[in-house]
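Our platform keeps sequence and structure together, in a single record for each protein. This encoding replaces a full spatial description with a residue-level series of whole-number codes. We quote a single record here, exactly as it is kept in our systems:
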Amino acid sequence: MKDKKDKTVITLRLTEEENEKLKRCSALCGLSQTEFIRQLCNGNTPKPEPPKAFWDMMNALYELHAAFEKCIPYYPQAADECREIERLILDLQEAV
């Protein structure tokens, strides 16, 4: 039985257009071309990485949530705001 680290080298011939598409798609997903193809072979469809603005917004929401959590002992309604922020975070993660 082959060790999982044993790999077979293959040669793949692509048109220039196909090669450019492979480069573009793998880069959008933050994967090497090899890993992109490997993911496809394993039945996974790699998804593009969210843009930096997405992560900036998520970080801002986490900071806002943390601030509201600190207010809960003094302002119990802040718990409702925390739940709303949590829902927004989950909705954003699903959308991306």
Notes: The helical segments are 16-28, 33-41, 52-71, 78-95. The chain has two domains: 12-49, 52-95. The chain is about 60% helix and 0% strand.
